[in-house]
């Protein structure tokens, strides 16, 4: 079945990536014929979202015919999303590069649908679901992680509250776009409105994605997620993280060891051709933050649901699926 949103298209001799910088105004695909071009597309946010980055990198290896230089340039493209390194490590062991990249893509899509079904069991009828950033079809091979849970809950007449997600506006541009395309009611708010809506009883559940999950369950996700988790805890609202097994990183003991990418000042001082901050102002732009495991109600993955995640529960799940 074709996906309504195709962020990644493999054409045998080239990789076509939907340019997410131009959405929702324009639908344009960037053609990559080398690993260097794929790495640049990842670095420049043509493609973003941890699973999608992993898939794109795998096809980048195919384009390079597995050259050592390709692995190195792709590995350096973005530091926080562990799916990138997981995919590259898997490609290093592959005998048939194209078949392996296609398998990574297909498994991600199937995994998204599986976690969507698991997650939907946690979502009440007519739930008002808040989400942050974009963990949808655009961030994966298709269907989505957090938005996959929402898509799988569509029959429950759910609605979505999409935080705009400053500074790159993934919620405003991408999540809102996907939900409109899907026909799921969506309301867009600025990030700073989230606490007010929670205090007014207008949020039933929060569902977000993840870029890396440490061994103890601490989770890296788009900047602003930690604040949402604190607010959800204060207001007694379930806070769910949806992410594939490839996002778990047992080599990282806790969130303090997850590398946090710092991006350019221009993303904060303005947007596209518009600048609103004065010249000379200092800027911080961490792209991610860490949500401690104790603030997470459950982690939803393609193998099931980890309620009140702990190091022991995560280790048990990962051991159960180790070949």
How is the secondary structure organized here?
Elements: E1 8-10, E2 15-18, E3 29-32, H1 35-43, H2 50-63, H3 68-75, H4 82-92, H5 97-120, E4 128-131, H6 146-152, E5 159-163, H7 170-182, E6 186-189, H8 194-199, E7 205-208, E8 212-214, E9 219-222, H9 225-234, E10 239-242, E11 248-249, H10 266-269, E12 270-271, E13 274-275, E14 288-291, E15 298-301, E16 304-307, H11 311-320
Helix pairs in contact: 1-2, 1-3, 2-4, 2-5, 5-6
Walk me through what this model shows:
The mean pLDDT is 96. Helix 7 links the parallel strand 5 (159-163) and strand 6 (186-189). The chain is built from eleven helices and 16 strands. It folds into two domains: 8-110, Four Helix Bundle (Hemerythrin (Met), subunit A), CATH 1.20.120.420; 115-320, Translation initiation factor eif-2b, domain 2 (Rossmann fold, 3-Layer(aba) Sandwich). The chain has 323 residues and is α/β, with parallel strands linked by helices. Helix 1 (35-43) packs parallel to helix 3. The longest helix is centred in the middle third of the chain and has 24 residues, at 97-120. The protein has a seven-stranded mixed sheet with strand order 6-5-4-7-10-15-16, sandwiched between helices. Strands 11-8-9-14 form a four-stranded mixed sheet, with helices on one face. The protein is 36% helix and 18% strand.
């Amino acid at each position: 079945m074709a996906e309504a949103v195709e962020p990644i298209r493999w054409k045998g001799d080239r990789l076509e990536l939907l340019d997410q910088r131009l959405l929702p105004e324009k639908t344009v695909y960037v053609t990559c014929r080398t690993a260097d071009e794929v790495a640049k597309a990842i670095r420049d946010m043509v493609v973003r979202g941890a699973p999608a980055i992993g898939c794109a990198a795998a096809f980048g290896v195919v384009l390079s015919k597995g050259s050592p230089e390709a692995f190195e340039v792709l590995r350096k493209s973005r530091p926080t999303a562990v799916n990138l390194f997981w995919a590259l490590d898997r490609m290093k062991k592959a005998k048939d590069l194209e078949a392996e990249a296609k398998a990574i893509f297909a498994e991600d899509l199937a995994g998204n649908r599986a976690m969507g079904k698991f997650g939907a069991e946690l979502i009440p009828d007519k739930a008002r679901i808040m989400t942050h950033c974009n963990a949808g079809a655009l961030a994966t091979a298709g269907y989505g992680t957090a938005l996959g849970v929402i898509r799988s809950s569509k029959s429950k007449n759910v609605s979505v509250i999409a935080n705009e997600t400053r500074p790159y506006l993934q919620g405003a541009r991408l999540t809102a776009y996907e939900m409109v395309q899907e026909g799921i009611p969506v309301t867009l708010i600025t990030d700073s409105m989230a606490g007010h809506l929670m205090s007014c009883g207008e949020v039933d559940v929060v569902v977000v994605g993840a870029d890396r999950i440490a061994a103890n369950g601490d989770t890296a996700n788009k900047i602003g997620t930690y604040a949402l988790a604190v607010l959800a805890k204060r207001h007694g609202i379930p806070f769910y993280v949806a992410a594939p097994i490839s996002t778990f990183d047992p080599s990282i003991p806790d969130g303090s060891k997850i590398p946090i990418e710092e991006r350019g000042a221009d993303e904060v001082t303005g947007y596209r051709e518009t600048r609103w901050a004065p010249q000379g102002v200092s800027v911080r732009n961490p792209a991610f933050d860490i949500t401690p495991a104790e603030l997470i109600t459950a982690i939803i993955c393609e193998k099931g649901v980890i309620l009140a995640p702990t190091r022991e529960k995560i280790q048990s799940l990962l051991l159960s699926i180790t070949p």
